[in-house]
Specification:
Blueprint lengths: L2 H13 L2 H8 L7 H10 L5 H4 L4 H27 L1
Length: 83
Amino acid sequence: MTADERWSRVADAILASPVARAAYDGEEPAELAPLVDKTRHHAYRIVDADVEGLDPDVVIEAALGAALAVALEARRTALESLR
C-alpha cells in the first residue's frame, strides 16, 4: 500500500463523520467555530474551557476534521516543494 493510499484511508475514516466533514470543509456549526479555528491554528492552546459544555464525541470529531485539513494541506505543500 502506498503512502497516498494510506492517507486516503485515514481521510475516508475521519470524514465519514458529518461533524468531521463540516470542520474539514470549514462549515462547522457556530458553537464549534472557536474550537475548530484554534485546532487549525493553535491546537496546543486548547484548554478545558474551550470544550466545556460540548459533547466529547463532537469535540473529537471536529478536531479530527480540522486537523486533517491542515495536515493534508501541509502534505500537499511539502510534496510540491519536492517536485
